[in-house]
Every structure is written in C-alpha cells, then in structure tokens.
Design a protein that fits this description.
By secondary structure, the chain is of the alpha+beta class. The protein is built from two helices and three strands. The chain has a three-stranded antiparallel sheet, with no helix packed on it. The protein starts with a helix and ends with a helix. The model has no long low-confidence stretch (mean pLDDT 88).
C-alpha cells in the first residue's frame, strides 16, 4: 500500500469527520541541520509559545478509503 496524505488533506476539506484532531502548538525545526523542515507539535497549553493548529491525531482510514476509491 501507500500513504494517501495529499488526498486525505483534500478529503478533510470535504468532510472533517475523516480525522479526529487535537489543538497543538506547532513549529517547524530550523536549528538542527539534520532535522530542518520537521514539524514539531506539543499539546496546546495556554502559554501561547507557538501558533496553535488542529492536528490530525487519528484517521477513520476505512471510511476515507471507501470515499476515495468511490471517486477514482
């Protein structure tokens, strides 16, 4: 199989129920040359340290795959 990250992002725009999300502080690693570009998330505490984004933490893969394949 293969990961369907880009189609899932489009799927979320169609039906946000494909994923369970959680608010997290998110930043992009810039300091460590070995990990530049890696996204780092931490539970959204009220510190306001990093911007908060809704991050997908669980996918209803069966439902999404059925939706995706019915349109291919």
């Amino acid at each position: 199989g293969c990961a369907l990250h880009d189609p899932l992002a489009v799927g979320m725009a169609i039906d946000a129920g494909f994923c369970r999300t959680a608010p997290m502080h998110v930043r992009v690693e810039l300091a460590d040359a070995r990990q530049v570009g890696r996204t780092v998330g931490a539970d959204a505490e009220p510190s306001g340290e990093w911007p908060v984004a809704d991050v997908c933490v669980e996918v209803d893969a069966d439902r999404f795959l059925e939706h995706f394949m019915s349109r291919m």
